[in-house]
Write a structure and sequence with these properties.
Structural class of chain B: alpha/beta
Number of helices of chain A: 11
Helix content of chain B: 25-40%
CATH topology of the largest domain in chain A: MetI-like fold
Helix content of chain A: 55-70%
Shape of chain A: flat
Strand content of chain A: under 5%
Oligomer: heterodimer
Number of strands of chain B: 8
Number of strands of chain A: 2
Strand content of chain B: 5-15%
Number of helices of chain B: 8
Shape of chain B: globular
Chain lengths: 306, 258
């Protein structure tokens, strides 16, 4: 592809060159800072590289990674398994959506980190408590984005399918579900990155284990060379999950609307569905509007009688 | 108001009186508050195979290819696969989109997208084709080029067509009968048989001697309705047609105007 389009490949090369340059600059700044501050406050980059090699060699990182990932994958699996179906049902059945909307918002606005002591009381300090904490964090972005995705289905399309005789179920499976796809993917991405955060928080607050555990241990004992290794591993995992949105899913939310001056379509195109989130300082996820329902999309669009 | 089999009826009237609603009623998307809609004597039509709908805003699924979009109504109506793809190919060809079967709507121009919309409705081979300002959201040129398309398609399989438009020229080009609907309450104001010979894409309908008279008449009537509605009190409909053309079978009904 890049071979066929010289302009694009040039752009890509420039981007990589810029990235490398910034990376090098960061390393240089780090090096200077560490020399100025001394190794007790900031280890030199090279020392961190040696620590990485050492900790990878003796299996410390591998063990911690396995512990953290076990918690993360189990918890995220549970969140997916409950969150997405719940979001779909809320979007598909208006009564459930209207009722659930309030409570999801309530729990979502709550600083859920505050519930960690409760989770410890319920589940103890072991793996199950960690899983509960991660579910608590990862669950809501999944539900909310799935729900929003179903709700933001183009109103015109919601009317088109029934006009050809589609039943409610067919409408849901062939139109709403597909239209929600890009939002569901956003939800998965957000849920996963909050989930990783949740893993570390859980490992700090409950029985110490995994990458979060290494961070506490090394941090509290001022072994800053080693301390930076799990931090870097976690950033790499986080970056690989929540990296640049792919363009694959974009077809479902853009395009297709007729070009030209058709005013009806502006509402559908103007408000990008979904990712109405920002990360609060406590790591909780908050919707940017109090109501999750996009204003331009009245819920009445869900009955075929619009 | 009643429609004959295989009749091409164009409905015109001022904006906002429920022409689209009328089509939805006929399609069975919404039940009537009062009165009845009968198709072949059976009341309460249900959306499905008997009715095809072409929308002003195309309403193609952006994630489906042209082929899949045309196939969609056939699939939800459980037409078997072989017949469905046969028909899809046939109507995609008829609307002139051969070679674009695997394109996505976003890759097509507005005119081409509406051709897909046309093929999608036609592929159902419906008894009644409902068209809601199908060319209203296209630019004037494309719209004019596409206008004859329903007529051409209509020749292949004659179905009853109910076509809503605001465009008088479109109405006179396409219709066997023009039904003028007035607002508040919405009712049929006048029905006019369009006398031009068919097929109409083979010659310039505009050059027919009755054409300007008919158009003038429709415009006058529309103007009356609009100014009555009070939305555009100063609408200028110009001088009214008072003298019918000599020897015309059609006579403008303007006697009551003074």
């Amino acid at each position: 592809m890049s071979g066929r389009d010289p302009a694009r490949s040039r752009r890509r090369r420039t981007a990589w060159a810029t990235r490398t340059l910034i990376f090098a600059a960061l390393i240089v700044v780090w090096e200077i800072a560490s020399v100025r501050l001394g190794p007790l406050f900031l280890p030199q980059p090279l020392a961190v590289v040696f620590a990485t090699v050492a900790l990878s060699g003796n299996g410390t990182i591998e063990l911690a990674l396995r512990q953290s990932m076990t918690v993360f994958l189990t918890a995220f699996g549970i969140s997916l398994g409950i969150g997405i179906p719940l979001g779909l049902v809320m979007g598909g059945v208006k009564a459930v959506g209207d009722a659930g909307d309030t409570f999801i918002n309530l729990f979502n606005s709550m600083p859920r980190i505050a519930l960690i002591p409760l989770m410890v009381a319920w589940f103890g300090l072991g793996v199950s408590a960690k899983i509960a904490i991660v579910v608590l964090l990862a669950f809501f972005p999944l539900v909310i984005n799935t729900y929003n995705g179903v709700l933001s289905t183009d109103k015109d399309l919601l009317e088109a399918a029934p006009s050809f005789g589609a039943s409610r179920v067919q409408l849901f499976t062939s139109v709403m579900l597909r239209a929600a796809l890009s939002n569901i993917i956003t939800g998965i991405r957000l849920g996963a990155s909050v989930g990783i955060l949740g893993v570390v928080v859980a490992e700090l607050f409950t029985a110490i284990s995994g990458l979060g555990g290494l961070i506490v241990n090394y941090g509290n004992t001022f072994q800053l060379n080693d301390y930076f290794v799990p931090v870097l591993v976690l950033s790499l995992i986080g970056a690989s999950i929540s990296g640049r949105p792919s363009r694959r899913g974009s077809r479902s939310s853009s395009g297709g609307s007729p070009p030209g001056n058709h005013p009806k379509d502006d509402s559908a195109r103007g408000s990008p569905p979904g990712a109405a989130f920002y990360f609060g300082s406590t790591g909780s996820v908050v919707t940017s509007s109090s109501s999750m329902r996009p204003r331009s999309l009245p819920v009445t669009s869900f009955s075929p009688r619009t | 108001m009643s429609l004959e089999e295989n009749e091409f009826v164009v409905i015109i009237g001022p904006s906002g009186l429920g022409k689209t609603t009328l089509l939805k009623l006929i399609d069975g998307l919404i039940p009537p508050d009062s009165g009845e809609i009968l198709i072949d004597g059976t009341s309460h039509p249900k959306p499905g195979l008997r009715l095809g709908f072409v929308f002003q805003s195309f309403r193609l699924m952006p994630w489906k290819t042209v082929m899949a979009n045309v196939l969609f109504p056939l699939q939800i109506n459980h037409i078997d696969k072989g017949t469905a793809s046969e028909r899809a190919v046939k109507y995609i060809t008829e609307v002139g989109l051969t070679g674009f079967e695997n394109s996505y709507p976003s890759e097509l121009s507005g005119g081409m997208q509406q051709r897909v919309g046309l093929a999608r409705a036609m592929a159902l081979e419906p008894e009644i084709l409902l068209m809601d300002e199908p060319f209203g959201s296209l630019d004037a040129q494309t719209s004019e080029l596409l206008q004859v398309e329903p007529l051409k398609l209509w020749q292949f399989k004659k179905n009853t067509v109910i076509f809503v438009t605001h465009n008088l020229d479109e109405a006179l080009l396409l219709a066997d009968r023009v039904v003028l609907i007035g607002a508040r309450p919405s009712r049929v104001e006048e029905e006019i048989k369009v006398p031009f010979r068919t097929p109409r894409w083979t010659y310039d309908v505009h050059s027919e001697p009755e054409y300007p008279v008919l158009r003038r008449h429709l415009w006058t009537r529309l103007g009356e309705m609009v100014s009555k509605s009070g939305l555009f009190p100063e609408v200028n409909v110009g001088p009214t047609v008072t003298a019918p053309l000599a020897g015309e079978e059609w006579t403008p009904r303007l006697a009551e105007r003074t």
